[in-house]
Amino acid sequence: MAAAENDREVPSVLCSEFLNFSAKDTAAKWLQVDNLPKEVYQHLACYVPKIYCLGPNLNPQNEDLLAQLLLQSPMEWYLCGEEPTTGLAKLEQSNQPSQLCGHVFKVGEPTYSCRDCAADPTCVLCMQCFLGSVHKEHRYRMTTSGGGGFCDCGDTEAWKKGPYCQKHEPNISDSSQRDPLANLSDEMIARTYNVFSIILKYAVDILTWDKEDELPEGLEPPVRGHSYYCMLFNDEVHTYEQVIYTLQKAVNCTQKEAVGFATTVDRDGRKSVRFGDFQFCEQAKSVIVRNTSRQTKPLRVQVMHSSVVAHQCFALKALNWLGQIIKFSDALRRILCQVGLQRGPEGENSSLVDKLMLCDSKMWKGARNVYHQLFMSSLLMDPKYKKLFAIQFAKNYERLQSDYVKDDHDREFSVTDLSVQMFTVPSLARMLITEENLMTTIIRTFVDHLRHRDLQGRFQFERYTAQQAFKFRRVQSLIGDLKYVLISRPTEWADQLGEKFLEGFEAFLELLKCMQGMDPVVRQVGQHIEMEPEWEAAFTLQMKLTHIISMMQEWCASDERVLIEAYKKCLSALTHCHSGFTDGEQPITLSMCGHSVDTIRYCISQEKVSIHLPVSRLLAGLHALLSKTEVAYRFPELLPLSELSPPMLIEHPLRCLVLCAQMHAGMWRRNGFSLVNQIYYYHNVKCRVEMFDKDLIMLQAGASMMDPNHFLMIVLSRFELYHIFSSADCRKRYSRDNANKDVVQQNNTLIEEMLHLVIMVVGERYTAGVGQVEGTDEIKREIVHQLCIRPMAHSELVKALPENENKETGMERVIDSVALFKKPGVTGRGLYKLRPECAKMFNLYFHHYSRADQSKAEEAQRKIKRQNGEDSVLPPPVLPRFSPLFGSLVNILQCDVLLGILGAVLQWAMEPSGGHWSESMLQRVLHLLGMGLLEEQQHLMSSTDDTDTSFNFTLKISRPGEAPGNTPSILALLETLQNAPHLEVHKDMIRWILKTVAHIKTTRECTASAAPADSSGHSQEETVRDKDKAERKRKAEMARLRREKIMAQMSAMQRHFINENKELFQQSLEELNATTSASLEHSPSTCDSTLVCVGPRRWHAGGSDRRQVVTCILCQEEQEIRVDGKAMVLAAFIQRSTVMSKNRKRPPYNPDKYDPLFMHPDLSFGTHTGSCGHIMHSHCWQRYFEAVQAKEQRRQQRLRVHTSYDVESGEFLCPLCECLSNTVIPLLPLTKTTCSTDQPDLKQWVNITYQQTKALHSAHRKTTPNSDEGDEEADSAHDCHPPDGFKLDHTPKNPYSSTIKEMLTTFGTSTYKVGLKVHPNEQDPRVPIMCWVSCAYTIQSIERLLVDEEKPLFGSLPCRQDDCLSSLTRFGSACWIASSQAVVQSHFIRLLAALVPDSQVENTPCILDIDMFHLLVSLVLSHPALHCLDSSGMSSDTAQLYFLQLVTVAHLVQILLTSIPEEVQMEQESGGAERVEEESVCMLYNILRTHLSSRLREVSSGWHLLRSVKAGILPFLRTTALFFHYLNGAPAPPELHAVGVGEWEALCGYLCLPSNLLQLYYNNRELLEPLLQGWCSHPGVLQGLHNSTTLVRFPRESNHLIELPEDYSALINQASSFTCPKSGGDKSRAPTLCLVCGAMLCSQSYCCQTELEGDDVGACTAHTFACGAGVGIFLRVRESQVLFLAGKTKGCFYAPPYLDDYGETDQGLRRGNPLHLCQERYRKIQKLWRQHSITEEIGHAQEANQTLVGIDWQHL
Ligand SMILES: [Zn+2]
Ligand SMILES: [Zn+2]
Ligand SMILES: [Zn+2]
Ligand SMILES: [Zn+2]
Ligand SMILES: [Zn+2]
Ligand SMILES: [Zn+2]
Ligand SMILES: [Zn+2]
C-alpha cells in the first residue's frame, strides 16, 4: 500500500484552486467582514484538510509551499496591509531590538560561563557573544549544550560584570524603558492583534483538542473524508527494539521502514504508521496494543480522522509562523505576549498561555517543543511579559509539577523545564518569593509528593514500589527549582522578603523534620541480616538537599534578624523532634575523678540509631554563623542560647559518631553493606559538609556550654567505655581484663576513636564562627592536607574538595599560596606540590582523613622530614584561636577526666606486651598532650600580663595522682616511657613533649622574673644524643640507598638481559667482520676506503667467517643462523597500510582479482611488516602458538570473552614483550656470491637478459597446455635460442633445511593473506609479489619516518627495526625458492618489460603509474629465479647494479615529466660542476619534450630543474641504499650516519652511481634513447600529463594528521553544526572526526550503520576500511577523546592532545576548563600512526585494561 501512494501528485482540484487563489483578495475580504474569527476559521476549515495529511509519503515541501501560499500569505497581507515582503522589511527596519542575544542552543553547541562574573552557572553565552566579551580573558568554563536554553548576553542580571558583548552593547541607554509599540500605527496594532489572537487561539484549540474523530466548532470541513491515520505515540517504557519488532508485525513494513518510524516517534513523539479507512487503521492498532501489553502498559496508539491530524499539523506550522513573524519587530512580539497572557472569559488562569501550559503533559513531544520554542522567543524575551509570565507560571506551579510527575517524558520536554529561565533571575525570584510565596509553594509541593511515612511522620523509602520510586526520581527536579530560587543571595532585605523567606524556611524545617531520624538502624547480633535495607533513596535526598541547606544558611547569615529568627525556629523544630527524648530512657548518674553528671543510659550497640539528623545539623550551622556575628562578640546574652539544653544538642550527633566508631571497631559487621555505604557517604566529600562536619560542630557547641568533665563522661558512656576508665583500678586493666581477645581488640579501637574524637572537638577550628578564621583559611587547610598525602593534579584536588552550588571549590584563589605547580611532560599531567613552608600546618589527625589517607600522609611527611635531615617527629600544628562562644573548649585538654584517661593509657603502655593498649592509642594520647602544651605556649605568648594563668597544662600534668592510688604524674610516666625499649617509634614524640615542657617552664620562670627567655634551653647531653642519633640515621639511610640501587640494577639487568645480549653479539660480530673483511684475499675491490653496497665492486662479507648466533627467547638456547640449520624466527606483525597514501579516494580493489605487481606511485595501499625484534626457534614458536590456540579455545567455550588478539587469524602476543604479532619471519644468512672479473657492460647485459627472457617465454609456452595459441607462433618463439650458458631445464637446488623451508612458506602466506585480505593459499602466484612489495613498502615507510624525525639514514634505527628490515629483505631474496620457478620468472619478465619494452608482454603500465622503488625491489628479488639458470659466469651483483641504473634513469624521466619547476624563485649563479649538471638536465628535458611533441612546458634554464630532480630522487636513493645495505650487508659510509651535508655524494658513492646522475643516461645513450622513446610513447603518459591534477609529484611529502584548532571549543562548534548525513538534518549524537583525512562522521548511532563484509558496523569502523585500510584514528568531539580502531573488533581510547591550563586532559568534557592543543602530544599520536604502531598500542591498552576488550568497537 505504501508503494501505491508513493508517487501521488498533488490533487488537481487543488491545483486549480491554487491558480485562482489570491492572498491579497482574501486579506482584503477579511478587512471587510464583521466576524473575522469566523471567517478565518472557515478559510482554515476549507483549506487545511486539502493541503495536509492526504496520506503518507507526500512530498512535505509541497505541503509547506501550499500552506505558505494559501494559509500564511493571506494572514501576512492582512497584517501588513500591503505586500508582505515590503511590509515586514519596513517593520524590521524601524525595529529597535532589545539587547538580549537570546540565541537558542542546538544540541552539542558549545556554551561558555564565566566563573568570575556569572550570577550562577546557568548563565551562559553563545560562542559568538563569548568571543566578543570581556569574559574571554577571565576564568571560564566551557560545556556543550544539551539543547534548549538561550544565550544570556545582554541580561544585566545574569552578569556581575560585562553583561554585553561587543555586538549587543546598547547604543541607547534607556532602551529598556521604551515602549516598542510606540512607532507602530494604531491600525497596524489592531490588525496584528486580530490576526495573532485568532491564530494563537486556533493553535491552542487544536493542540489541546482530545477528540479523535471530530473538530472544534467552526472547523468542521465542508466535505468530510473517510480517511484515518493510525498514530503511534512515544513513551519512555518501550525500547527501540520492541517498537521496531512490533511495527514490522503490525503494519507489515520492512525493518528499515520500522526503524524510520521508531526514530521519528522517538524524536517527534508521534508518527502515523498507517493510512486508510477506519477498519484498516483499527486493525493495526489492535495488533500493536496486543503485542506490547504483555509485561508493561501497551504503546499508545490512536486512530485519528485525517482532518484532525491535518489541523494539528497546521497548528504547529502556525506557531512556527508566529515565531518567525515576531522576529521582525519587538512590537509584534509584545503584541503576541499580550494576546497570549490576556485573561480568557473563564477568569483566572484562563489565558491561552495558561491553557497550553496546563495541557502540556497531554501533548506529544513535537507539539510541546514547538510551543516551548515560541514561549522562549516571545514571553521570555520581553522584559515586561517575562515577569507576568513568571507570575502565571508560579500560580500554576503546583499543578504543572503534579502533571510532570505523573507524565513519563523527560524533563527537557516538559514546560516545567522553563523554570530555570525565570527562577534564576534574581529580581524575578525575589518578586516570586514575596508575591507568590514561591519558596513555600515549591517546598510544600515537594513534601506533598512524598506521602509514604512512618508512624512518627518520617519519610519511609524502604517499601517503595517501582512506581513510587519513579515518582521520587521525578519529584527531585523540584529541589533544582528551589536551588534556582536561592542561588543569588539578597544584599538587602525588604521586610516582606524576610517574612516570606522565614515562612519558606519553616516549610523547609517541616521537610527536614520528616528526615530527622529516618532510616534508623539497629545492630544485628548473631545472624547476618537477611536483606540489605534500602538506604540510597534517603542519601539521594540528602545529597540533593546539601546545597539547599548550605544556601539556606547563607541567606540567614546575610541578615542578623533573619538569622536569629531562623535560629529560634530551627531550635523549636529540634525540640519538637526530640520532645521526650529521655522518655523510656533510664536516667543514670556517672562519676569519675571527683566529678559526676546525670544522664541517661543509651547503648548505641543495642538500640535504634539514625544517620539522618538534618535538623540538628542545620542548627549547628546556624550556631556557628551566630557565633560569627557582632552580637555574639558583644552581647551574647541577647542570643536565644538560654533555651538550649547542651546534653540534648549533643545527644544525637554523638550517637551518630559513636556508630561510626563502632563500625570501625567491627561491631556492626553483620549489618551488611548498606551500613558501610551510609557511613562512607556520611564522611564523603559530597555529603560531609552537611553531615559529619556539622555533627562535629554540634558537639563543639554543646561541649562549649558544658563542664568539660561532664561532657567527657557522657562521651565515654556513649562509647560504652565508661566502665573501663571509671573503675578505681582502671590503670591495671591489662592484668585483669584478659578474658576475650575480640572484646579487648574492640575496646582498643573504641578508645582510639574516642581519643580521636576528643582531638577533633578541641582541634578543629577552621570553620568560620568556631575558630577565628577567614573562609579561605579553611580551604587552604584542606588543600594542604590533601597535598601532604602526595602531589596531586588539579582535578584530583577538585574532587577532594567540597563544591558549592556553583560548582566552585574556591581553590584557585588560594592554591598558589600553598602549592607549587609542576608542568606535565608529553605524558602524565601537571601536578601541585605542597610548598615546603606549609608542611608545618600538617595535622596527623585532620578530621577529613580516612584511616588510609592518614597513614599515607604520615609516611610521606616523615619521609620528607628524613630527607631534609630533620627529626621525623610530627607534633600537632599550632592552631588558630576559638571564637568567644567556643572559647571554653580548650579546657577539655586540662580537665580531670581527660587527664585521668591520658594517665591510664600511659600507665598501660608501661607494659610492653599483652595487647591491652595499642600504638595508635598511645600516639593519640601523645598528640593530645602536645596539643595541651601548644595551647599553653600560645596562652603564654598572647597574654600581655600574667593574669591569664588559667590555662596551666604543665602544672596539671606534673601533679601526681591523689590518694589512694598515689599514681605517678603524667610527666613522670613520660620520663619513664622515653627509655622503654618497646616504644622506640614514639621516642621522638615523647622527647619533643618533654622538651616543650622544659621550654614552657623556663618561659614561665623568665616571665615571672621578667627576664628575657633563653630559648636554647636543652642540655648538653641532649645535643650529644641528638647528634648520635642523626649519625646512626644517616648511616642507615646510606645503607638503604645502596641496597635499593643494587636491587634496581639487578631487576634492570633481568629485564634487558636478552636485548643487551643481542646487542653484545651484534657488536662483537661487527668487530669480527671488520677484522676479517680487511684480510679478505679474493676480492680486491673491498678496500674499505670506498664502501659500496651494490654491483660487482660491492663490499663482500668474509664468507664462512660470518657467523651469526642468536638466542631463543623461549628455550634460551643459542643457535647459529645457517642455511641448513634449525630455523630461527622473528615475531612479526603484518598490516595493511594507507599511511603514505597520496590518494585516499582510490576505491578499494577486489582482493580476488587485484594484481599487485606494479605499485602505483600514489602508494594508496601498502603492506607493512613490523617486529618487536624477539627471536625464537621455529619449533619453539610453533609449540607456543599451539598452546595459545588451545588455551583460547577453552577460554572461549568457558567465558565467551574476547581477547586483545584474534587467534583465528593467526594473532598472538610475543611471549616476551606481549607485542601483538600475526606471523614470524625466518632469519636467513647472507647469500654467498661469486664474482668473476669479466662482466658485460649495460648494453650487452640488457641484450643477454632480453634473450634469456625470450627463451623463457617460449619455454613457458611449451609447458602451458594452451590451445588458443597458434602453432606457428609457438614455433617462432621456439626458434630463438637461449644465450650461452642459459640452461632452461636446470632445476636449482633448494639449499634450505626443512624447517626454514616451512617458515618461508609460513611468512610468505601470511603476507599474502593479510596484505590482500584473502584466504591463505600458498600456491597463489601473488604470494612472492606480496613479499616483495611488503619489503619495499616497509623500507619506504621507515625512510619517511627517519626524514620526519630528522634522524640520519643509518645508525639511528632501533634494534628491532634493524632486525626486521634485514630479515625482511633477506627473506625477500629467498622467497622465490618457495614458489614455482615459472611463476617468478614470468613476474620478472613482466617487471622488466616495464623498462625494456617486450612485445610479448601485454598491459604494461606506463612509467608514470609505477613506483620505481617497488619496481627495483621486485626486479632484484625476482631475478634469482632467472639467474639460477645461468651458468655463464655473469654475476648477480652485476644484474643488481644494472637494475639500479635502469630504474634510476626511468625515475629521472618520471620526475622530469611530473615536475613543474617553480621559476618564480630567484636563480642563483652555480659553479662549474653544477653548471654541467644543469645543462645536462636541460638537455634531457628537451629530449623528452621532443618525444612528447612539446606537451611539456618550456624551461629556460636548468637551475630549477636540477634542484627539483635532485630533491625528487633523493628519497629513492635513500630507500635504495637501505635496501641494498640490508640485502648485501655492506656497512654504510660514515657520512650517512649523520644528517646534513655530503649526503648526496655519499649516497651516490655507496650506490655506485655517478654523482651527476644524468651521466647514466649520456653514458648509455645508444641503449637508452630508444627506451626513452618507448616510455614516452606509452598512451598512459599522454593521458597522465593531460590530467595533471592526479599526477603524483616527487618528492612525495610525508602525510600529516589533519591540522587541529588551538582552541577546543572551535572543534565543538564545528561538530555542533554537523548533521547526520543519513537522517536528513538530524543532529549527530557522537560526531567523530577522522584525524587522518578530516572527515566528520556520525558515530555510534543506528542511522549511520552500514554493512561491511556481512556485519553491521558503525560509521567509524566503516570509514577505517576506506580511509585507513582497517586502522583508524579519530577524535570523539563531544567526549574529547581519541579513539584508535583496528579491524572490527579492536579499539582503545587514547588521551586527547588537548590540555587545560593545569596540564590535564578532560576526557568526557566533564570539568569544562578551557582546552588547548598540545602540539607535542599531537605529534606523539602522529608518530604512532606513521610508524604503524596503532594496532600495537591498542593491543597493549587492551592487555592492560580488560574492560576495553568487551566494548563493542565495531558499532562506533
Ligand atoms: Zn549570544
Ligand atoms: Zn552578545
Ligand atoms: Zn567574566
Ligand atoms: Zn627455542
Ligand atoms: Zn617481543
Ligand atoms: Zn547518522
Ligand atoms: Zn579518514
Structural overview:
With 1756 residues, this protein is α+β, with helices and mostly antiparallel strands. It is 51% helix and 7% strand. The chain contains 65 helices and 25 strands. The strands form 10 sheets. Strands 18-17-21-22-23 form a 5-stranded antiparallel sheet. Strands 4-3-5 form a 3-stranded antiparallel sheet. A hairpin with a 3-residue loop joins strand 22 and strand 23. The two termini are 36 Å apart. One zinc ion binds next to strand 13.
Task: Indicate the topology.
Layout: H1 2-5, H2 12-20, H3 23-32, H4 36-51, H5 60-80, H6 84-94, E1 107-114, H7 127-131, E2 140-146, H8 186-207, E3 228-233, H9 240-251, H10 255-268, E4 270-276, H11 278-292, E5 301-305, H12 306-325, H13 330-341, H14 352-358, H15 365-377, H16 383-395, H17 397-406, H18 419-423, H19 426-436, H20 438-449, H21 466-475, H22 477-486, H23 495-515, H24 536-557, H25 560-577, E6 586-592, E7 595-601, H26 614-628, H27 630-634, H28 646-664, H29 672-683, H30 692-704, H31 708-718, H32 722-726, H33 733-736, H34 741-763, H35 775-789, H36 794-800, H37 811-818, E8 819-822, E9 831-834, H38 851-867, H39 896-909, H40 919-942, H41 953-958, H42 970-977, H43 987-1008, H44 1020-1078, E10 1109-1111, E11 1118-1120, E12 1128-1137, E13 1166-1177, H45 1178-1199, E14 1212-1213, E15 1220-1221, E16 1223-1226, H46 1242-1263, H47 1271-1279, H48 1298-1316, H49 1326-1348, H50 1359-1374, H51 1381-1393, H52 1412-1422, H53 1424-1427, H54 1436-1458, H55 1472-1491, H56 1502-1528, H57 1543-1550, H58 1558-1563, H59 1565-1577, H60 1579-1586, H61 1608-1616, E17 1631-1634, E18 1640-1642, E19 1650-1652, ...
Antiparallel strand pairs: 1-2, 3-4, 3-5, 6-7, 8-9, 10-11, 12-13, 12-16, 14-15, 17-18, 17-21, 19-20, 21-22, 22-23, 24-25
Helix pairs in contact: 3-5, 4-5, 4-12, 5-8, 8-12, 8-13, 9-10, 9-11, 12-15, 17-20, 19-20, 19-23, 20-22, 20-23, 22-24, 23-25, 24-25, 24-26, 25-26, 26-30, 28-30, 28-34, 34-40, 35-37, 35-38, 39-40, 39-42, 40-43, 46-47, 46-51, 48-49, 49-50, 49-52, 49-56, 50-56, 51-52, 52-54, 52-56, 54-56, 55-56, ...
Bound molecules: zinc ion (7 copies).
Enzyme class: transferase
GO cellular component, one term: cytoplasm
Zinc finger (UBR-type): 99-170
